[in-house]
C-alpha cells in the first residue's frame, strides 16, 4: 500500500503527531476579562450571553477569530479579543473546553 499512496504514511504520521499543548493556566488568567459577561467559570448569568464552559476549543477559536476579523460583530467582544495573539486564543479556548459540563435531559 505504501507504493500506491506514498504521501499517505506521511499524512497519517502528521495527523497522529500531538499538536502543541495549550497552556491552561495562561487561559485561566486570560479568562478574567471574560468573566464579567460570561461568568467566573464560563457560565453566564445573563440569558443573552453564551456559556463558554465545555464548548469545543475549535468552536471557541473560530468564534474569537471571527470577532477579531470582523466576520462576527459585537462591540464589546471585538474590543476584548482584538489584541489577543493566536497563542492567547488557543490557551483561552483550551481553558474553557477543559470544563466538564453535564446535562440532565427533561423528564
Topology:
Layout: H1 6-16, H2 24-30, H3 35-38, H4 57-69, H5 75-81, H6 86-97
Helix pairs in contact: 2-6, 4-6
Describe this structure as you would to a colleague.
By secondary structure, this protein is mostly helical. The protein has one domain: Orthogonal Bundle (Cytochrome Bc1 Complex, Chain D, domain 2). It is 50% helix and 0% strand. It has 6 helices and no strands.
Short synopsis of the structure:
The protein is mainly α and 107 residues long. The protein has helices at 6-16, 24-30, 35-38, 57-69, 75-81, 86-97.
Q: Keywords for this structure?
A:
single chain, 107 residues, mainly alpha, Cytochrome Bc1 Complex, Chain D, domain 2, 6 helices, 50% helix, globular
- The secondary structure category is mainly alpha
Label the CATH architecture: Orthogonal Bundle
Global shape: globular
CATH class: Mainly Alpha
Quote the CATH topology. Cytochrome Bc1 Complex, Chain D, domain 2
Low-confidence region ranges = 8-18
Q: Into how many domains do the coordinates divide?
A: 1
Tell me the number of strands: 0
Annotated CATH homologous superfamily = Cytochrome c-like domain
Strand proportion:
under 5%
Mean pLDDT: 87
Helical percent range?
40-55%
- Note the gap between the termini: 52 Å
SSE succession: HHHHHH
Q: Helical element count?
A: 6
Amino acid at each position: 500500500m505504501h507504493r500506491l499512496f506514498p504521501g499517505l504514511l506521511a499524512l497519517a504520521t502528521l495527523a497522529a503527531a500531538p499538536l502543541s499543548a495549550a497552556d491552561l493556566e495562561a487561559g485561566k488568567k486570560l479568562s478574567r476579562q471574560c468573566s464579567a459577561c460570561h461568568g467566573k467559570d464560563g457560565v453566564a448569568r445573563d440569558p443573552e450571553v453564551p456559556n463558554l464552559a465545555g464548548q469545543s476549543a475549535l468552536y471557541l477559536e473560530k468564534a474569537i477569530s471571527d470577532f477579531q476579523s470582523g466576520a462576527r460583530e459585537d462591540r464589546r467582544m471585538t474590543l476584548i479579543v482584538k489584541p489577543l495573539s493566536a497563542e492567547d486564543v488557543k490557551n483561552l479556548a483550551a481553558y474553557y473546553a477543559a470544563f466538564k459540563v453535564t446535562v440532565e435531559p427533561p423528564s
